[in-house]
Amino acid sequence: YPRQHTRETQLREFNLTQTEAMLRSYTKVLFVRDPFHRLIFTFMQDTGSSSSFSSFVQDVLDSGQHKSSVAWKPLVSLCQPCLVQYDYIVMFGFLSQELGHLLRRAGLPADSLLPEFTDTQVRWTYSWLSEQMFSELSLQQKKQLSHFYRWDLAAFPFSSSLLSN
After folding, report:
1. Per-residue pLDDT tens digits for 108-122
2. 92: pLDDT confidence band, cut at 50, 70 and 90?
3. Domain ranges, ordered by start, for the chain
4. How close are the terminal C-alpha atoms of the chain, in Å?
5. Which of 20, 45, 78, 117 keeps 20 to 30 A from 125, CA to CA?
6. CA angle 11, 16, 22 (to 5 degrees)
7. 41 to each of 24, 30, 113, 126, 150, how far by Cα in Å?
8. Which residues 6+ apart lie within 8 Å of 52 measured at CB?
């Protein structure tokens, strides 16, 4: 597709015809992560915060969907998976299998391009950390978070997410 945009140009700045043409010309890949893991990651990155995880979650819930940060906003509202037909959806925690497949489908030598992943360790660590952080939340906060991320949980197979229960 003719390059009519810079790196900073967002898709919404183009008209419908241009947007459709661009989307047809690209291979579209969406990387998804359990929304609860995204919250934990964001909380841990905010090293200047002295608040508890429960307080952080309450701030997220109080901000609402429209005022929420991209760091924890529901993926469905960011990526429009119902409108954009993605060619690949890559789940965090399964990167080594999925990226290898994706590179092979693109005709690239997957073995030489992929860094070494420790998916098993990452999944175990996040599982343990999720359980610890989840236990800090009140029942009401758990229900509100499940509601806040209901469309992500419906759109993507986060079967082991604590928010799914």
Report:
1. 776 666 666 555 666
2. confident
3. 11-47+69-155
4. 44
5. 78
6. 55
7. 33, 19, 26, 10, 19
8. 136
